[in-house]
Write a structure and sequence with these properties.
This protein has 343 residues and is an alpha/beta fold. It folds into 2 domains: 8-225, Rossmann fold, CATH 3.40.50.300; 230-342, no CATH class. It is built from 13 helices and 12 strands. The strands form 2 sheets. The chain has an 8-stranded mixed beta sheet with strand order 6-7-8-3-9-10-12-11, sandwiched between helices. Helix 4 (112-124) crosses helix 5 (128-141), helix 4 (112-124) packs parallel to helix 7 (160-172) and helix 7 packs parallel to helix 8. The longest helix is centred in the middle third of the chain and has 18 residues, at 190-207. The radius of gyration is 21 Å and the shape is globular.
C-alpha cells in the first residue's frame, strides 16, 4: 500500500443526516490534507459543512449523521474503522478540539484546574499532585493571570477571554499532534480575539501542534493559516495558499467572502457589500455548481453540471468554476473587469 506523507488526510468524504424530511447531504465528497506543524483553515458560511467535517474526523459524529463515502486517515490509520475504545485513546491525546463557546462546554460545577487536569489524568495515569503540577505549568504557558489562585475558580468567575484560555489549556495539555479550533474567537471582542490568535500561534510553535481552523472570519485566517479551503454547500469550491486566496482568488464565492470583509481603506460612501440570496437546500442539492443561484456570472453550464477542479498558478491552487473552462473567456473577462471596478 502506498504511504502518505501527510499527518491527516481526508479523501472524498461524504456525510449525510437521515431525518424525517429526507437525506440532508451535509458534506458532499470533499478532500483535504494536513501536514505536521501546519495550520490550515476551512472557511465558509454557517451550514456549509465545516463543523460536520471535523466532528466526523474526530469520531464525534452522532445519529442521525452517517458517513456515506470516502476515508479519513491519521498517520495511516483508518479513522472511520476504529472502535470506540481506539477513538478514545486518540481523542484528547493525539487529536483535540477547541469550541467557540467555552461557557457551554465547561462544567459549571467543577473548578477550572480540575477540568484542565481531567484529560491528562485519563491518558497519562498520573496522581492528582502530578496532574496539578502539570496544570500549573500549562496555565503559566498560556500566560493565565494568577494561576495558583485562579486554577481553583469556577467558569462563571472568569471573563470570556480567560474561559477561552482555559479551553486552549484543556486542549493542549496532552501535547496533541492535531488541534481542531471551531470558531475559537467568535464570541470575543476584537482585542481578546487578537490575544487568542497570538496565543495559539505561539503554542503551535512551542508544542509542534498542527492546527485545523474552522471559521467564517477571514480576518482570523489571515493571521494563522498557511493554506485555505473555501467550502460552500458541502463542497470545497476553492483551495490554495493564504496568498492565493487573498491576492489571487478565482471562485466567485471567494470573491464575495473577501468583498464582505470590512476594510479601513474602503470608500465609506459605498454600501456595505454582501452576498445576496441563501445557500441551497441540501435535502435536494442542485445538479450543477452549488453557488450558481447566487452567482452573477452564472451561465447555462453552471446550472446543469458541476465543474471540475482546475489548477492555476500552482498545482495547489485549484477552484471549481465554469468561468475557467474553454469557451468562457468573454464571461471571465467581464467578471474580472467588474471585480476591478468594485475594489
Amino acid at each position: 500500500m502506498e504511504t502518505s506523507s501527510h499527518l491527516l488526510e481526508v479523501n472524498d468524504l461524504a456525510v449525510s443526516f437521515f431525518t424525517y424530511a429526507g437525506e440532508v447531504q451535509a458534506v458532499r465528497g470533499i478532500s483535504w490534507y494536513l501536514n505536521k506543524n501546519e495550520t490550515i483553515a476551512l472557511v465558509g458560511e454557517s451550514g456549509c459543512g465545516k463543523s460536520v467535517t471535523i466532528q466526523t474526523v474526530m469520531g464525534l459524529l452522532q445519529s442521525p449523521g452517517r458517513v456515506t463515502g470516502g476515508s479519513v486517515r491519521f498517520e495511516e490509520r483508518d479513522m472511520l474503522g476504529l472502535s470506540a475504545k481506539e477513538l478514545r485513546q486518540l481523542q484528547g491525546n493525539h487529536m483535540t478540539m477547541i469550541f467557540q463557546d467555552p461557557l457551554s462546554y465547561l462544567n459549571p460545577t467543577m473548578r477550572v484546574g480540575e477540568q484542565i487536569a481531567e484529560s491528562y489524568r485519563l491518558h497519562h495515569k498520573v496522581s492528582r499532585s502530578e496532574a496539578e503540577a502539570r496544570v500549573l505549568d500549562m496555565m503559566h504557558l498560556i500566560s493565565f493571570p494568577e494561576p495558583e489562585r485562579n486554577m481553583y475558580a469556577y467558569p462563571h468567575q472568569l471573563s470570556g477571554g480567560m474561559r477561552q484560555r482555559i479551553m486552549v489549556a484543556m486542549a493542549l495539555i496532552c501535547n496533541p499532534q492535531v488541534l481542531f479550533a471551531d470558531e475559537p474567537t467568535t464570541a470575543l471582542d476584537v482585542t481578546i480575539q487578537a490575544q487568542i490568535i497570538e496565543l495559539m500561534n505561539s503554542l503551535k510553535e512551542k508544542l509542534n501542534t498542527a492546527i485545523v481552523l474552522i471559521t467564517h472570519d477571514l480576518g482570523v485566517v489571515a493571521n494563522m493559516a498557511q493554506r485555505i479551503y473555501v467550502m460552500y454547500a458541502g463542497k470545497i469550491v476553492e483551495r490554495g495558499s493564504a496568498k492565493d486566496i487573498f491576492y489571487r482568488p478565482k471562485h466567485p464565492y471567494t470573491w464575495g467572502l473577501l468583498a464582505s470583509v470590512p476594510r479601513l481603506d474602503a470608500d465609506q460612501s459605498r454600501d456595505f457589500r454582501y452576498i445576496p440570496g441563501t445557500p441551497p437546500d441540501l435535502l435536494n442539492p442542485p445538479k450543477g455548481c452549488p453557488f450558481a443561484a447566487r452567482c452573477r456570472y452564472a451561465c447555462r453550464a453552471c446550472v446543469s453540471s458541476i465543474p471540475e477542479e482546475m489548477a492555476f498558478d500552482s498545482e495547489d491552487h485549484r477552484a471549481s468554476c465554469w468561468l475557467y473552462h474553454p469557451g468562457a473567456e468573454a464571461l471571465l473577462a467581464a467578471a474580472e473587469r467588474e471585480r476591478g471596478m468594485q475594489r
